[in-house]
Please model this.
Amino acid sequence: MTTLAPPATRRDRSVLTALGARVRGLLGTRQASATWVLPATLAVVAVSAVLYLVNLTVSGYANEYYSAAALAASQSWSSWFFGSIDSANFITLDKPPLATMVMGLSVRLFGLSSASILVPEALMGVASVALLMATVRRTFGPAASIIAGLVMALTPSAGLMFRYDNPDALLTLLFVGAAYTFIRALESDRIRWLALTGVLVGLAFNTKLLQGWMVLPAFAITYALFGRGTILRRGAGLLVSAVVTIVASSWWVLGMALVPAELRPYIGGSTDGTALNLILGYDGLGRIFGGSGTGGGDGGGPSFSGTPSMLRLFNAEMGGQIAWFLPLSLVGLVTGLVARGRRARTDVPRAAYVMWGVWLATHALVFSFMSGVIHSYYTVVMAPAIGALVGGGIVALWSARERFQWTGLVLAAAVAGSAALAWSVLGRTPTFVPGLGTVVLLAGLALAVLIIVPTTIMPRRLSMAATTLALAMLLAGPAAYSVSTMATAYSGGAVAAGPVAAGSTAAGGPGGAPGGAPGGAQARDGGQAPAGFPADGANGTLPTDGGSARGGQAGPGGPAAPGGMGGSLDAATLSYLVEHQGTAKWIVAVQSANTAAPIELSTGLPVLAAGGFSGSDPAFTLDQAKALIKSGQLRFVMTFGAGGQPGGAPSGASGQAGSGGQASVSSLVEISTWVASSCTAVTIGSSTGLYDCVGAVQ
Model:
């Protein structure tokens, strides 16, 4: 006797069918796609999730500078908007607040922990990989999308930034999202998709200022050449997108300009407390041309990423982070353009090749030749373009083999060249997975020979297997870097994935001794502190941009210990400050945010970072200090000289420390001198240089 399935079962099947359709829609796969597409896509997403989420809390609070701002954002909505380092709103980060807004919401919802800070970053990475695959699938097909996702997921700089709390994770996600909406605009000729692209680029600007606009040439050039409609229609679309981009970019800058200076925090990294100065100076044009733009100079960029040159992306500092597939991506770009050269002007796949190519070229040129501060992890934003071009190029070369046998030779040469590059990069770290470089080289050369054999001689499946295995071998090097990154505790701002390459100026890691960037104590992102002016009291050491880049202050599963990155207060002193804070807004005033951050994270209370990130912003004057002390908003001050003694006039200072230069140095020396002569020294625990200023101003 036949019975009908119960209604509940039918409903369950209907729900599962709808859920499957939703998953396929999110990942860009179709019901009619080959059976391998959805499982392969999910497998790549799973790989990225493992790489970015497993052992995530090993780095504790990671870059405490941003973690402290996330804590402040979770405690105060005004700090959340301003991007303040402290919840009492003395000074902001030297970046816009969007990245810390996300982390701040997480901390507000789940409480302060390493996981609440870092899990959002990891999820951004997983989303970026999935969104890239959805974007590439629309133009180059499912096989290309799988390759693109794997290449991006295993790129070492991505494996680091999606496990870290710097703004680059959000920046990359917004860039990939903008690429997706832009492709939709090319497909549909709907202005709303182009406008949405502008919104995402504007949000990217509010993540890392001018770097958020670096994808604009790729979108503008591609749409102008290959967009649908007449020239006038394309011009109108670009105009709409430009207006939307400007509006979406300006909300924080306008907000800071409209709020009176006395009612908002000082804008860190600027020389005059304005967002415009930050954009045009230290965190904008100063990054590209060196110096601080409108403010004091800021040398030191090459100390993190080598000397500017055409081959900078392949050097000891940056090669292991991004270079693995650069040549193959260029081959993919040329192949794609040639393969679709005779298509209609509005051919979307050809337009996609141009978009990714201009994206990659823009970043490669800027990162290769910028003479200001540049860290190797900036290259994470190149990973989507590299992945897309490698995926599209390999598939295009393979597809053309049966018609043009010479494409097999091109593919084989690209594989052999990439294997040689991997061998060279891995050769810089001979104690890291010994022999891996040799295996990749020999296997790559052998497989290249097989790839050359025409499909008329060698079975197609065997040729495809050789190509697939060759790609797997090329991924072995970056995969090893990424796995190494998963097992390593990182802290501070000057970080790099994987082992330390021979000849690199990066700090130690697996196979290398931990340590800050060489060349002496370094101020903001590498700028030298003025001679004769050691920072932050008790230990007399200038807070570096990150202290130990690997294996630094952070411990497995927990926050970095107080005192990291230039901090000098022990547990007994912190307890004393908490007990005696009274009605003061700030628990203590210290020179830099690098000193303030671990104190804030340990106590949960605001700390006044007098000189911003590295202690060199001209944000705090003696008159301000006296006014805060007199009103009871500030009680304790750590003097800004060696061993707790007031610092003397800087010897030979040239105004090159951070953004503030000589003006900030002189102001802090003046404050230290007055505090030492007018306030009462507090000796507790092992900390020195702490003063109680109650009653110092009548």
Q: What stands out?
A: The chain has a mean pLDDT of 83.
